[in-house]
Amino acid sequence: MLAATSEGLRLVATLDLRLWEIVVLSLAVSLSAVLLATLLGLPLGAALAVGRFPGRRALIVLLNALMGLPPVVVGLLVYLLLSRAGPLGEFGLLFTPPAMVVAQTILVLPIIAALCRQAVEDAWVEYEEQLRSLGAHGLRAALTLLWDIRFSLVTAVLAGLGRALAEVGAVIIVGGNIDGVTRVMTTTIALETSKGDLPLALSLGFILIALVILLNAVAHLIKEAAQRRYG
Q: Which CATH number does the domain housing residue 109 bear?
């Protein structure tokens, strides 16, 4: 165990090419998915927080439920969509990084949207009268609140990124875990552990843990900076 740990640390310290290719691909896929989920999730969450329409409560319940979507189910659904017999099969996306981005976006979107909705709804309760007196309602009010609580929304986005980075099931199904093409950190850890190649698995585990700690540190620093600036 000590030998494997030592070798894993050496791979990280010596910037092993194979290791860092996997890390770069993981970050590219997860960051792309989180960007798409953020662009879709923030407006959706804000609209549910400010809007009042029939079925709103049911949509909120559904959105909260989707936060616990099983990754393997999402992977299966995306696989069926992108397979040759599926409606999107002609694009040839299955077993490629874009397919993994689609799967992770579906997983991350409910998390960002639900957390955004809660944050915007809390702000709406506090500022509703003030915004209405200024003539802001509907879309305008939602966008105003999104901007006003933008620093608080960093937590929602980072929660989504953490989910994306740690995801295994969906990306294995739609990516195929192809060496040099779709093999990311989590799928490599699972594969190399089953093969007994602990140094590579441990080195990726160290990097994954470091990334999670870094993300939380960044979120904490952003919130502190915002509190100092805006009181």
A: 1.10.3720.10
Q: How many domains does the chain have?
A: 1
Q: Which domain holds residue 12?
A: 2-230
Cut 0.85: pTM above it: yes
Tell me how far apart the alpha carbons of residues 113 and 62 are, in angstroms, rounded to a whole number.
11
Q: Comparing 119 with 219, which gets the higher pLDDT? A: 119
Residues found in the chain = 231
Q: Write down the H helix ranges in the chain.
A: 2-13, 17-50, 56-66, 71-82, 97-133, 139-148, 153-166, 169-175, 185-195, 198-230
Cβ distance 222 to 151 under 8 Å?
Answer: yes
The token duo for 207 is 């990097």
Looking at residue 15, its pLDDT comes to: 76
Each residue of 45-95: pLDDT tens digit?
988 988 888 988 999 999 999 998 899 999 999 999 999 988 998 999 999
